[in-house]
Amino acid sequence: GQNIDQPTEMTATEGAIVQINCTYQTSGFNGLFWYQQHAGEAPTFLSYNVLDGLEEKGRFSSFLSRSKGYSYLLLKELQMKDSASYLCAVSDSNYQLIWGAGTKLIIKP
Amino acid sequence: DADVTQTPRNRITKTGKRIMLECSQTKGHDRMYWYRQDPGLGLRLIYYSFDVKDINKGEISDGYSVSRQAQAKFSLSLESAIPNQTALYFCATSENRDYNEQFFGPGTRLTVL
Questions:
Q1: CB of B45 within 8 Å of any CB in chain A?
Q2: Which pLDDT does position A109 carry in this prediction?
Q3: Residue pair A90/A28 in contact by the 8 Å Cβ criterion
Q4: Does the CB of B10 have a partner CB in chain A at under 8 Å?
Q5: Mean of the pLDDT values across residues A12-35?
Q6: pLDDT tens, position by position, B44-62
């Protein structure tokens, strides 16, 4: 079967750095997406990795290791508005997105 | 701005009623999707369509049907709603196969009593 694992919930402090991990087992791999979702709102695109390595975009970075079936999203200089759920999704051999259940990130002042 | 819209945004209905959720997009994308989201379960695919003549079942299609009326419109129907269909429903679109970034509508919160 296909499986995406990410922690259910994480807590971090405003101004700090947090790393959200995602491990996957899918039938094929055609890229990995990270989305941000505020409570009751639509998911919005954050990043995409298809090759191994780090992609940096402002305060957010995403890393991929295809051999390990592993990715992480790194959020720096945390702000209260970063309190949200972060969804990991893998594009499988049929180019279908397989979604993780999401990690709820709580930011404390 | 090119966008994905959903109507209604909120709906409360009773068991056994027929419900239609509508999705429209101005992005010009061929691919459209319907998901439901339940707390702790993430997004689950109900149906997807790669063009007007192509409809496919997703992971959890039982109890649902869809209609792709045009490139821009994709409707989801619950023929006879039941309480465990209470969820947040999202429509999404994507442009092509190889890079499958999906763009989401604002969601419809459906409650079945």
A1: yes
A2: 94
A3: no
A4: no
A5: 96
A6: 999 999 999 999 999 999 9
